[in-house]
Amino acid sequence: MSYTTSYYHIVFRTFRSEMTISAEYERELYAYIYGIAKNLHCQTYRIGGMPDHIHLFVSLPSTLSLASFVQRVKTDSSKWMKANAHFPNFRGWGHEYAGFSYNLHDKDKIVNYIIRQKEHHQRFSFAEEYRAFIESNGIPIDKRYFLQDK
After folding, report:
1. I need a labelling partner for 99 at 20 to 30 A (CA). Which of 58, 74, 90, 136 fits?
2. Secondary structure of the chain in the HEC alphabet?
3. pTM reported for the whole predicted model
4. 99 bridge partner residues
5. Contact 129, 146 (CB under 8 A)
6. Cβ-proximal residues to 73 (8 Å cutoff; 6+ apart), any chain
7. pLDDT in tens, 34-47
8. Ramachandran quadrant class, 127 (left: phi over 0; alpha: psi -120 to 50; beta: rest)
9. How far is CA 16 from CA 29, 32, 38, 46, 92, in A?
10. What fold, for 6-136?
11. For helices 26-39 and 66-82, angle between their N-to-C axes, nearest 10 degrees
């Protein structure tokens, strides 16, 4: 028996950062994403966001990579949203995503950050938030691709 755990704060945005997730139906989307994560045997601690992006705080089983998890969430939720009348202008998710690892001691801090998204974005744009996350985690940003969709 192996004992492992992986906690991730994941952030991804809508295609071209379009405002296509209405506040009226965001909880419906979050519930759908929660179901995807549950079917993949992940523990979801919080899902939240804004009309143009999503934050997830999850723990993944050792058999599932971060990239595989994000691919499934984005692919499955995109198909569902495109078929759902509550998201008529949704054209897909942006190409990139960000995923940062944390430990259990950071859980409350990350969950509270996600809960306060609407308050946070009264002061900071998504681009500013995203850039700060990436840079504070020591990841170099290639300006040719940063927040670019084809």
Report:
1. 90
2. CCCCCEEEEEEEEEHHHCCCCCCCCHHHHHHHHHHHHHHCCCEEEEEEEECCEEEEEEEECCCCCHHHHHHHHHHHHHHHHHCCCCCCCCCCEEEEEEEEEECHHHHHHHHHHHHCHHHHCCCCCHHHHHHHHHHHCCCCCCCCCCCCCC
3. 0.93
4. 10
5. no
6. 33, 36, 37, 56
7. 999 999 999 999 99
8. alpha
9. 19, 22, 28, 24, 9
10. Alpha-Beta Plaits (3.30.70)
11. 140
Domain boundaries, the chain: 6-136
What Cα–Cα distance (Å) separates residue 126 from each residue in 19, 61, 88? 11, 29, 22
